[in-house]
Every structure is written in C-alpha cells, then in structure tokens.
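This section describes the prediction task in plain terms. A model, or a person checking by hand, is given the sequence of a single protein chain and must write out its three-dimensional structure as a string of tokens. No templates, partner chains or ligands are provided. The sample shown here is typical of the held-out split.
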Amino acid sequence: MKTKDRIIETALRLFNEEGEPNVTTNHIADEMDISPGNLYYHFRSKDDIIWQIFLNYEKKINQVLNQKDVNYTSMEDMWFYLHMVFEVIAEYRFLYRNLIQLMNRIEFLKRHFRHILALKSQTALDIMTNLSELGSLKTDKQTIASLADQIALTATFWLNYSIAIYDDDFDEEKKLSHGIFHVMRMVAPFLTDHDRDILDQLSTQYL
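The expected answer:
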C-alpha cells in the first residue's frame, strides 16, 4: 500500500477511535512510524487529510444513494437500503460526530455535505413514493415529504444521539441497528397491516 493511502487509512481509524479533535498529524505519523515530514510531503495539513477521507466517503455514500437500477418495493428492500446507508455512516463516523465543527472549518466539505443531505432526503422520498404507489404506504404527499426529511435528519444525527443515551462500551453494531429501527418506526404508522407485520419481524432480527 502506498504511503499516502496508509496515511488515509490510519487517520480514519484514529479519528473514529479517538475523535478527530484529539488526533494530530504527529499522532498519525507516530502511529505509522514515519516522520512528520514524510506525512507533510503527501498532505499539507490535517484538514487536507480530512478532505481526502471525505471524498472517499462521498464516493461510497453516493454509490448507495444513486442505485438507480434497484426498485425498493418492500419493507425488506427499505430495511436493506437503510442498513447500507448506516454502514457507510459507521465507517466514517467521525465525520458525523464532529459534523458541525468540520462544516464550519472546511468550506468545501460544507457544500458537499449539504448536497449529500439533500440526496438522502430525495432518495427517501423516492422510496416512500414508490411504496405509496404500490399501496404499502397509506398517507398523502405532504406527509411523505416530511417523513423523508425526518429520515435524513435521523440518519445524519443518530450517532451523536447514541453517544448521549448509550454507554461508551455499547456495541457499535447495535447502535446502528437501533438507528435503523427508529427510522423504520417513523414509517410504521402509515403502513398497511401486512407491511407493519413484516417490519415487526425484521425488528426482532436486528434488536
């Protein structure tokens, strides 16, 4: 693996484990057993490293959000889709845990993340509109639009919320499953009895 790629990989792990504000470029260099000068040869600052990590995240989340060849026509499909989104969030969780600070600090990141948030809402809207047209979701267009924004909001800030309500040693995978569960429960009141039963069955598998 190239040194530049190792820096990205090491920084991502340290940011996730220790929190981005607590990690310096010297920490990253020490962890890799390279000199700070070697690191600065590839990246001028920590923010440059964060920006490159963000670009990797952006590529992955866009691949999930832009799966045009997938038709989400069931509760299983929607649950699977949410799981893919939350998996990407977990892989780059430091971005979400320090989102506001990073957006205020790195202008490019702010603009790009706003686009991702809009895409999350639009994708959720498309899925629920599809379910509504199939008869699985019983509500009006205005409520569907509101639910789409709520889903994007919950997915984006769930990790911060989970830090407040769960112990530090609470299993990360369970945190994600609980996040998916809460998103799906937003939709549950508007489902047919059949689809609500399917949702209940899925919930027992993940919680």
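For orientation: The chain has eleven helices and no strands.
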